[in-house]
Design goal:
- There is one protein chain.
- A five-stranded parallel β-sheet has the order 3-2-1-4-5, sandwiched between helices. Strands 6-7 form a two-stranded antiparallel ribbon.
- It folds into two domains: 14-109, 3-Layer(aba) Sandwich (Rossmann fold), CATH 3.40.50.720; 116-152, Double Stranded RNA Binding Domain.
- It has helices at residues 22-32, 47-52, 68-73, 84-97, 134-148, and strands at 14-18, 37-42, 58-62, 77-80, 101-103, 116-120, 123-127.
- Helix content is 33%, strand content 21%.
- With 157 residues, the protein is α/β, with parallel strands linked by helices.
- The mean pLDDT is 89.
- The chain contains five helices and seven strands.
- The longest helix is centred in the last third of the chain and has 15 residues, at 134-148.
């Protein structure tokens, strides 16, 4: 089954990211380009992520995941990029609360896929392989970025 691409305004919305590693970091880099507020929950985060945490657009809650983060932050959606056993708890809690969730460790636990993003001005292209071939999606994203970069005049959007 293919997933329907949906483009929504996430500016000023709360997004919860569970995990502080490189997968979470890549996703946070993408999310902040769209103006949302990201709360990262993890006992530790990678050094590069520490430079992103400004307490406003990206906030780090140092510690372990608890279901209260879902009610306290009221996220639009949750990205689970932690160890698999933590992701399983996050997915179960999100499903109980009716919150869309993406489990980076298991495509069967995804209510949506986090796409490869090509962004030039207001033009945005999302790319997914349906969770089956991340390398293909990454290759297509990189190729399109090269092709699109500079082609679009931002004043045209």
């Amino acid at each position: 089954m293919s997933f329907f691409p949906l483009f929504i305004d996430i500016s000023e919305k709360n997004i919860l990211v569970i995990g502080g590693g490189r997968i979470a970091l890549r996703r946070i880099h993408t999310l902040v380009e769209f103006g949302c507020r990201v709360t990262v929950v993890a006992p530790e985060i990678c050094e590069e992520m520490k430079t992103l945490t400004d307490g406003q657009s990206v906030k780090w809650e140092k510690g372990d995941y608890a279901s209260s983060f879902l009610t306290d932050n009221r996220p639009l959606f949750v990205l689970a990029a932690a160890p698999a056993e933590i992701n399983e708890r996050v997915v179960a809690d999100c499903r109980k609360g009716g919150i869309p969730v993406n489990d980076a460790s298991r495509k069967e636990n995804c209510d949506f896929y986090f796409p490869g993003i090509v962004k030039e001005g207001e033009t945005v292209i999302g790319i997914t392989s349906g969770g089956k071939d991340h390398r293909l999606a990454a290759t297509l994203t990189a190729s399109l970025k090269k092709q699109i970069s500079g082609l679009l005049d931002p004043s045209d959007n």
